[in-house]
Automatic annotation (TrEMBL):
Coiled coil: none annotated. This is Redoxin family protein. GO terms for biological process: cytochrome complex assembly. Residues 1-23 form the signal peptide. GO terms for molecular function: disulfide oxidoreductase activity. It is found in: Cell envelope. It comes from Paracoccus limosus. Keywords: Cytochrome c-type biogenesis, Redox-active center, Signal.
């Protein structure tokens, strides 16, 4: 147990120390102060090229979005915090999605199509492209241990920040973060 606490302190401390070196124009402190306190900037690391599918069986990968800033959200139909968070992700996509930015909602694990449709209907999700990772291969390769987990990916296809747990993505702080991340 002591090793886990030490490891967590070292990792979180390293993230805090490393963040200014690569953060560019992103004001991470403003995001934290604005309600995204669980958002941790990390040293840029390429995202895996592992494929995942859409509900119709089409194959996709995160490299499909190269050139855009992408907010990748791993969720599941059985996850209560996911149910609370999903409407704000949908609003964020409706407000800021386009040429420079995309939210991608990836249902990780066993989520039967009827359960996914029911979840999306109840959460009133209309703007998010929903993708599927039924064997959790991409989730495992990205180190996702629980849900929800949201990963911010830069235009070059590098993970630059991660948030474990739910957040209000329609908040001013979240929108400011995305605007900074998509700025030229």
């Amino acid at each position: 147990m002591r090793w886990l606490a030490l490891y967590t302190a070292l990792v979180l401390g390293a993230n805090a120390v490393c963040a200014p070196a690569f953060a560019g124009a992103i004001d991470w402190q403003a995001a934290h102060d604005g309600g995204l306190a669980k958002l941790n900037p990390i040293d840029p690391a390429p995202v895996p090229q592992t494929s995942f599918t859409d509900p119709d069986g089409g194959s996709h990968s995160l490299t499909d979005y190269k050139g855009k800033v992408v907010l990748v959200n791993f969720w599941a139909t059985w996850c209560a915090p996911c149910r609370e968070e999903m409407p704000s992700l949908d609003r964020l996509q409706a407000q800021l999605g386009g040429e420079d930015f995309q939210v991608v909602a990836i249902a990780a694990g066993h989520n039967p199509p009827p359960a996914i449709q029911k979840f999306l209907t109840e959460a009133k999700v209309e703007n998010l492209p929903v993708r599927l990772d039924p064997r959790q291969q991409l989730a495992r390769e990205m180190g996702v241990m629980g849900m929800p987990v949201t990963v911010l990916v830069d235009r070059q296809g590098n993970e630059i920040a991660r948030l474990i747990g739910g957040a209000d993505w329609s908040s001013e702080a979240a929108q400011a973060l995305i605007r900074q991340a998509t700025a030229p």
